[in-house]
């Protein structure tokens, strides 16, 4: 019997090792799997490479993981947002690496990784420092830069509903990066607001099929990153 449900966040992330590459869902606060990230902090895996849209906010979630010196490199589009201070300070002191990627290019690199496409050309970043030392080719007289697909060892994802097979439905912009990260990772770990019975999810509404998911844990009342930041909460292992 297929059953991908685990009973605790500890069980969900126990296999993550030092030096792992991890995709973390989220579009700002939306889709950010705070509980899984906090468990990863407690777990203690170090020298991680993180692929995410941004570097987190305040001192919780992804920002707390970075602040705890567990991340050696981050690949993202927005390294600094209104409430981020942890990453900028570490970056300017040379304590963390950054690979800056335009948001559309980041999404396509991840999608390509899941689709088995090793690389692609795009006009995005031409004429900017981001295409330095990259292969540039002309098509129909226009320059394009070669970008390589991104894959990861793990993906930490948040969704709205799931079943024991690992079929997922997302809420709003949590869908922006979650589905493609599931396909581009060897092991996808999902926290969901609700686990439903098999057959309760309309097949036409399922965004991520269970074949791309390995573990699911139900977090009925997940914390909200913006509220924690507003309250100046600092997550400490």
Give the SSE layout:
Blueprint: H1 9-13, E1 21-24, H2 34-43, E2 48-51, H3 61-67, E3 71-76, H4 86-92, E4 97-100, H5 103-115, E5 119-122, E6 136-139, E7 142-148, E8 152-162, E9 168-169, H6 178-183, E10 185-195, E11 215-218, H7 225-230
Parallel strand pairs: 1-2, 1-8, 2-3, 3-4, 8-10, 10-11
Antiparallel strand pairs: 5-7, 6-7, 8-9
Would you mind describing this structure in some detail?
There is one protein chain. With 237 residues, this protein is of the alpha/beta class. The chain has a single domain (9-115, 150-230), classed as 3-Layer(aba) Sandwich (Glutaconate Coenzyme A-transferase), CATH 3.40.1080.10. It has seven helices and eleven strands. The protein has helices spanning 9-13, 34-43, 61-67, 86-92, 103-115, 178-183, 225-230; strands spanning 21-24, 48-51, 71-76, 97-100, 119-122, 136-139, 142-148, 152-162, 168-169, 185-195, 215-218. Strands 1, 2, 3, 4, 8, 9, 10 and 11 form an eight-stranded mixed β-sheet that branches. Helix 2 packs parallel to helix 3. It is globular.
